[in-house]
Specification:
mainly alpha
């Protein structure tokens, strides 16, 4: 059975720790800006930040021209759709709750990989782990009392975040199946820029111009999130392109995200405090992903 080497695990953990800080940054930015405009500018900046590391503009544009259709599909799924839903969902739910819901994304990624790839199938033991995780998400969703008008928007926000995760999972499949064709930094830079440009156009249509005067707190959050995306996605794309790496096994390390993301939100955001349904849901999600990961590591029946 193939296992992730220690250095791959270290890189995966680093990327996940970076992503866990995004929820706080997004909630801060959304205090001042509309979601699609904020997201669009963030990813355009992320794509541009990676340009100096792609081997020169001539090589960069040549690779894009030769692989434009694949890059465009990736930009649509990994950045445009995934983050349009993510940012819109973040306007409907607290940052800590969003961190926990997004923490179930490895289960969604495993399901999508099962459906779209030939060598990454779900077994009975993996399915049991997934059901535990989805039970955690259900606990969180029901705790928001969706049958009441006050809780309905948060429940819808949870569904929107899950749909965004599914789109991101499709993007992971696209990267994983492109083992050698497109260098990961070129792939990430181009898809971030194109996806961000699409979000910016969407913003102009439905939100108006995002170019306004904002307080310094907004710009700090924007720059930090742009750097985060450039670094974390590049690490992830490099790992997904490694021979033998399975999408489900790699994404299971994202169990770190809901724990650290929720804790940071509770510490930094003044209006957010721990609630027992959120904590119970977090425990369920973490247990499911940990058991899924343990299954991958010690049991051949999980392959």
């Amino acid at each position: 059975m193939w296992k992730l080497p220690a250095k791959y695990i270290a890189l995966a953990i680093l990327a996940c720790l970076l992503w866990s800080t995004a929820f706080v940054g997004v909630k801060i930015g959304l205090q001042y800006a509309e979601p699609f405009g904020f997201a669009g500018i963030r990813f355009i900046l992320s794509g541009l930040m990676l340009l100096p590391f792609t081997g020169g503009l001539r090589r960069y544009f040549s690779i894009i021209q030769n692989n434009f259709k694949r890059i465009l599909v990736l930009a649509a799924t990994q950045t445009f759709v995934a983050y349009a839903f993510f940012y819109f969902g973040m306007t409907l739910v607290p940052g800590a709750l969003a961190a926990i819901v997004i923490g179930s994304s490895p289960l969604i990624f495993a399901l999508v990989a099962h459906l779209l790839t030939a060598d990454d199938k779900i077994t009975v033991l993996k399915l049991m782990s997934m059901l535990i995780g989805f039970a955690g998400v259900a606990i969180i969703g029901i705790s928001r009392q969706p049958w009441q008008s006050a809780g309905l928007s948060e429940f819808i926000g949870i569904l929107i975040l899950l749909i965004g995760s599914a789109s991101g999972a499709v993007g992971n499949v696209i990267v994983s199946t492109d083992k050698k064709m497109i260098p990961p930094l070129v792939l990430n830079s181009s898809q971030l820029f194109i996806g961000g440009f699409g979000l910016l156009v969407l913003s102009l249509i439905v939100e108006g111009s995002p170019i306004k005067s904002y307080p310094m707190q907004y710009y700090i959050a924007l720059i930090y999130l742009s750097i985060l995306s450039a670094v974390a996605f590049s690490i992830w794309f490099v790992l997904l392109k490694k021979p033998g790496v399975k999408i489900s096994s790699l994404n299971l390390w994202k169990f770190i995200i809901p724990v650290f993301g929720a804790i940071l939100a509770w510490i930094i955001l003044p209006d957010e405090n721990p609630e027992w349904p959120a904590i119970v849901g977090m425990v369920f999600v973490a247990l499911s992903i940990l058991s899924f990961n343990l299954c991958n590591m010690v049991s051949k029946s999980c392959d």
